[in-house]
Amino acid sequence: MSKRTAIIDIGSNSARMAIFERSSRFAFHLINETKGRVRIGEGAYNFGGVLQEPALKRAFNTLEEFTAIIQSYHCEKVFCIATSALRDAPNASVLLNQIRQNLQLNIKIIDGKKEAYYGAIGALNYLRELDEAVTIDIGGGSTELAKIENGIVVDTFSLNIGTVRLKELFFDKKAPLNSIRLFIDTLLEKIPERFTCKTIIGIGGTLRSLSKIIMERTNYPLKTVHGFEYALEDHRPFIDAIVNADVLGLKALGVRKDRYDTMREGCIIFQSIAKKFMANTIITSGAGIREGVYLCDLLRTNHHKFPSNFKLSLRSLKDRFSLTEKENLSIKRVALSLFDVLQPLHNMMETYKYELGIACELCNIGIKLGFYQNNLHSFYFVLNNLNYGFSHQQKILIATLIKYQSNKLPLEEEIAPYKTVLPELKTLNWLSFLLSLAKTLNHDMSQEKIAFQYQNHTLTIETDKKLFLAREHIKQMVKPASFAIIIK
């Protein structure tokens, strides 16, 4: 498969392009993302879906610049798909032929069920493991749903309601909200019963924008919208306020200017679907249709799913920035052994071994950027890039452990900005200490076998190694509890 692949998604509201670069068999990372507000569906819904000349011109100009970017990045493979506005347009062939002849770009118009499937594949592979959920992707011309059961997409559904469509048919004509809700509810009656679900995965611009605003209003400590979760009940009044607001009201509520003309429309669709499903948990996905198209090609021999226990962000970071992967796995083995041996002393939940192990694997990635303060480089790498397959709580915990992999332990005031998403300080201190001690015992990178025993408030370390450097370093370490360390 190509090392660099470009994915173009032409929607009713905007055209977007993502360029991915592979780093190993299943791992890759995003190297470019470009968006153009094409508004290809603008004016079409009052004319039987016929695309208007200004919109066609905007689409051509945008795609012309996309192709220049693709050539600059030397992409070896390009996928270009179009959704609702083009599949509804009687004159879609005009644009398709113009693009094919002048830009040598083939646009594939996909149906609503395929669009829903791509979005779900993107979210499913990028988010933490979910047993049951329904994805909702509110676009300009349509809204796509996909039902996930036991980690598999089992059904998809497409509704002919979207933000641009509602805007032109109702909001621009100042129709009462009750009549808009009645129109939406009538369409929602077509959704099969199996889609009813308490957990919604939000895909697309409207729901990501809503999550960003909620994060800002609640002073949420992380900035990454992917993986952000919230209880719908806590924010119903705010969503109601958006639906009922005018333009000045939207500004006061924190809505971005480029969302003024679609935010109310998107939120009223979201309200209606969430009410029908009696949903209570919303999970935001930064991945959607473009990622889904890429993954369907990348994972075409693997049922469009990553292998079991594969974590995209982890593998991608290690591919690009790990200098000592074997040594880090040795540190991981030592740290997990220490966790088990010192269990009577620290009394932490067994589940924390997972985050401790990941922290060991990534503890040195910052060195690639610069040796001095590399623990801080690693902290920021993890905080901003360990997004896929991990919850926000897992990500900030792993980043924090890496930040304090030294002689000192985290202090209350140092972790205060992230306190709401971190475990208690005692747990942080213990996990940080275990990582630091494991790293110290592997200071010479020899990866020799080490045995541990804890008895009578004493940790005994047995090894054939001299551990000359480690002995001196251990004397300087701050321990989270009172116990002795003896090396034999």
UniProtKB/TrEMBL annotation:
SUPFAM superfamilies attached to this UniProt entry: Actin-like ATPase domain (SSF53067), HD-domain/PDEase-like (SSF109604)
Keywords from the UniProt entry: Hydrolase
InterPro entries: ATPase_NBD, GppA/Ppx_hydrolase, Ppx_GppA_C, Ppx_GppA_N, PyroPPase_GppA_Ppx
Sequence ranges assigned to domain Ppx/GppA phosphatase N-terminal in this UniProt record: 23-299
Any Pfam family matching the protein: Ppx-GppA_III
Ppx/GppA phosphatase C-terminal domain span: 313-456
Molecular function GO terms recorded: pyrophosphatase activity
Record-given protein name: Ppx/GppA phosphatase
The species this protein was found in: Sulfurospirillum deleyianum (strain ATCC 51133 / DSM 6946 / 5175)
